[in-house]
Amino acid sequence: MKSPFIFDVAALLRGSALPEHLTQSGPSPTRIGPEMIAIPEGGKVIVEAQIIPLGGGLAVEADIEAQLLGQCSRCLRELTPTKTLHVSEVFAADPDFVTGEDAADDEDELPMVNQDQIDLLQSVIDEAGLTLPFNPVCEELGYGACQDDETPAPDGVSEEVEDEEKVDPRWAGLEKFL
Fold it and tell me: What's the whole-model pTM score?
């Protein structure tokens, strides 16, 4: 099973200095995203990458499209939105690609081209962690209002009718322990 995040760049490293547009698709090699919503392992991923030779390295601009799988953090409804993540990364073809006075002190080392291949997986994992919602809600992902009317509003949001305090149905089973 070949990862859609791995690109063969041998021709770019040894060939012309013209950018190349590549598209690959396949199953995700791992689950990518936070706990409540993510690209599932084995889920179809489409990667459209623009790879630009930089002499001793490569610049990559990529759009990753995949269907997410998760749950609303309020009503626990299954969510399956399609999301596009954007990744920008520079890969070094040799260790001396970027040098300078602070090069030894720099904690963020550039990823390396390994055996004429680049792997965007870690960049996609990082982008998913920064972009995807930690606590997804139906409304934020275009599903409209939550399905369960009994689910109370999130903390900090007042409801119009507050006649009685509603018990969150997800916790209702714990009442017998009180």
Answer: 0.75
